Amino acid sequence: MKRIPKLALTVGLIAAVYGLFVAVFTYILHLPVPASVMKMYMFFVTVVVLLVMTSNEDSARELVAPLEALVYQPRLRRLRAAVFIVAPLAGFGLTYNVTRPTLDAPLELRTVHPAPPNSVKVFGKTYNLLTLENPYRAKEKSDLEAFRQAVEEGKTVYFQNCHYCHGDKLDGKGHFSGGFNNPLPANFTDVGTIAQLQESFLFWRIATGGPGLPNEGAPWASPMPVWSNYLTEDEIWKVILFLYDYTGYAPRVMKEEKGHS
Amino acid sequence: MMLSNAPLAQALMALFILAAASPASAQQALTPERAAKGKAVYEKRCAGCHGLTGQGDGPAADRLRPRPRDFKTAFYKFGDTVFGKLPLDAAIFRAVAEGLPGSSMPGWKDVLREEEIWDVVAYIKEFSRKFARLKERGEKLEPLEIGTAPKLTETDVQEGKELFLKNCEKCHGKAGRGSGPSAVALKHDLGDRIWPRNLTKGWTYRNGNSIENIYRTAAGGITGTPMPSHLESLQPAQVWKIAGYVDTIVQRERPKTSEVIIGKPIEGAPPAGPDDARGAEAAATLIPLVGQIIEGERWFTPTLDSVQVRALYDSKMIYLLVEWDDPSASPLAEPNDKFPVNEPDAFAVQLPVTIPAGMEKPYFLGGGQNSPVILWKWTNGGAVETLSSTGILKAEPFAGPAASALSANATYVDGQWRALFTRPLAGGGDGDLTIETGKYIPIAFSAWDGNNGEKAEQRAISIWYWLLLEPPTPLTVYLWPAIIGLLIAGGELWLVRKTNQHAHKKE
Amino acid sequence: MNTIRLCVGAACALTLLYTAPAGAATVKGVISTPKKAGAPEAIKVTKDHAICGAKPLTKEEMLVSGAGGLKNAVVIIEGAGKAAPGKGGIAQQGGRFEPHVITLPAKSKLEIKNNDGISHNFHSFGFENDPVNFSQPGEMKVKVVDKGFDYPEVIKIQCDIHEWMNAWIVVSDESAVAVTGADGSFSIANIKPGNYTVKVWHEKLGEVTQKVTVKDGDNQVNVALGK
Hints:
The complex is a heterotrimer of chains A (about 260), B (about 500) and C (about 230).
Chain A: H1 6-28, H2 35-53, H3 57-72, H4 77-99, E1 119-122, E2 125-128, H5 139-142, H6 144-161, H7 163-166, H8 199-208, H9 233-247
Helix pairs in contact in A: 1-2, 6-9, 8-9
Chain B: H1 6-25, H2 32-45, H3 47-50, H4 89-98, H5 114-125, H6 130-136, H7 154-167, H8 169-172, H9 211-220, H10 236-249, E1 260-265, E2 285-288, E3 290-291, E4 306-313, E5 317-325, E6 346-352, E7 373-379, E8 384-389, E9 395-397, E10 407-413, E11 416-424, E12 440-448, E13 460-461, E14 465-469, H11 476-506
Parallel strand pairs in B: 1-4, 1-14
Antiparallel strand pairs in B: 2-4, 3-13, 4-5, 5-11, 6-7, 6-12, 7-8, 8-9, 10-11, 12-13, 12-14
Helix pairs in contact in B: 1-4, 2-5, 4-5, 7-10, 9-10
Chain C: H1 2-19, E1 25-32, H2 49-52, E2 74-78, E3 87-93, E4 96-98, E5 101-105, E6 109-114, E7 120-124, E8 132-136, E9 142-145, E10 153-158, E11 166-172, E12 177-179, E13 185-191, E14 194-202, E15 206-214, E16 218-220, E17 223-224
Parallel strand pairs in C: 1-16, 1-17, 3-6, 5-11
Antiparallel strand pairs in C: 1-13, 2-12, 2-14, 3-4, 6-9, 7-8, 7-10, 10-11, 14-15
């Protein structure tokens, strides 16, 4: 069997590793790999492959032989001319791609669930968020009928006020979410939102809205209204009940041992 | 932003549609047992808008336009039958599964199983006794015959245009933007105000925007609305020609939104007005607008849904060209008795007072107490003014010593406003923005449709976007690539010389 | 419920064919209102002025004579006889419907004329009856609708192209019906003496019913609406 030329083997090997990366991350794991990380991987791969290929004198000579041939073999004149014209142009193009001005939006970092303050002033009162509880939560066990009634009232509040952005399905895809899309309205069905939060956190976020966010939450960008202007304290607790009831999630509780015997 | 996976998403969507469509066409027996099962699903998923008694009066109903369907009157808009006739089961199934684009009705097939959707269809049919009566009378629903779209020649489409102008223009307007003279006085059968479709925005067609869908709606009309059926007055072949013409003016996909409006440097004569062809030299950015439902008297039912923005500038001035579709130029020249409301149309551009240095911006909704913004506001038939604002309820005449000279020139043609705002780049001093090239400047928009009763904070708004006046490209951008290119070329020459010497020596 | 009504209706129709000649009484009267209406308000014509503005148009929803007589009220003597299906007519003419109020026996056909030579549409707001809405361009001078008026119901008619154009069709399965004239008067002949309920409907003033005893000869029944 004829041996594969060293140069082809080198290029092929690097290409194969690249293909493998792409296949594994994009099509199997569905993890998008940032271009910069990919570049770094491939740099090391290339170095390693070249090190192996040039581990002894003969091997190194064999690797560069075709390149040498390209430069001085008279029969490769045409190919040589083409390569010599294309190479500087490619260098120009690739460099331009790096130096050209990009007109993309500046990157804005925003904390999606910023740490809540210890207390919040709203409805003319000060609430201690560390101990604040939904007054209707206990009724789930003590008075189921009253609890269901509160959930139903919360549903009315939701559909009169919230579903325009947060959606009929609570998925954050209401018909105004196409315009209020940065930040996107919270998707309550996602495991990363209310399922991870305490009811007191929701109370704080609803009552004080976008303008009540700390600076790391970009209060200037959030279209979430200050709901204390439109809803009563009671209505806010009821709508919180509804969010958990509809999605089937349970709120995170402060002390796991408490109440859940 | 969120559309990077669009082709994949579309492919998946297509699969879903295929998966949902095939069973939909297979008629299911809608038994009372089914309806009983559908009740629970309905009460959890549908009652918020359609109401527990199915009369389209759930808690959200008053704040939605179009209003949720009232299942008791059974005026189903898209029933695959001719105007006034009850809908086919498959058409109800399709509306529930796929949703109605451009309205607040979402598609439910990602949440409900196919069986559950049929249960719901069975249940909502029980709200009206008309379905039972139909059975008693032993009648069957006749589906609206569509057939397949014929091959249409250019002459056919031209004829379609003439038919359109004769039969559809009164409501849909000359350019199809829903701005005909009758558009401002239309009511749904149940009394709500209703607007004709802007036929250029295909992504808002409730019942799909394929040519077959267009034919179906044009031929059969839309039950409960002023949209009549046309098969009494036109031959199917003529309706196909109209559909063929609409096919040429519809843009099916919603244009992608970019976060940055890129201002283009121009030389020579600046654009003379909003219709000057120079405006088209800059790239257009389509910015979505939604109701202001955050402060004061909230506005849930705006008519305006987007604005297209272009920016140009020269050494002294900025030219901001904004275009938005509006079904009427109000105040109306000929107000009607049905809807006497007749406020002026208006538009405002919102900018910060100074270009923010860091990430922090003024509050997007008219600025904040400690973060004022300026507004460039144009009002139809009124003044063009620079306002200072520290909140959406707190816009006042310009607060600083003098605002830079602002002018705006607007025209309204066939359902579209085009306004050209012109202002020196330099601000007027304290409290006024100086616009610099190469800097990202937050920008937001507000639009008022006066004929829809919009005024003050009741309007359509956008969130913050960026305005970037693209600086002339510096030479250094080309310098490095040139150096690299030359280095490679030099290296090649050196190689050639070296190998030539080598060859000579060998000889 | 509806099948019962249908059967009863059919039975009544048959009985009435037999009993109708016996009716010798006439019911006459004036429908009036104490409401002062003044001269009818002018309509704002906003399009097609050449045709719709040729003759000044005024609102027809409340036409009261100097003596208080109410025009376009519908009088129905319930139980006096079953109406036989037939054919009614209405025209789109000069930017208005002529006449403004018609009565129509249930299951009748309706002939709609367009005498204007411009595009109108004919849009009925039925609930019991399936609504109808079709475009009627100038060339379509006559269109006969043979379905859509099967059940007794007051149906509003609208031309959406010309927003001020509306009319009313009172579909009834009673044979003893009348629309009042300009002075509010009406006259219904061939009624069999007996006790009846008279129903009066007006588009603005709503509906009232009144018990009456009809005797041989002329009977005066005056009803006031909108007190």
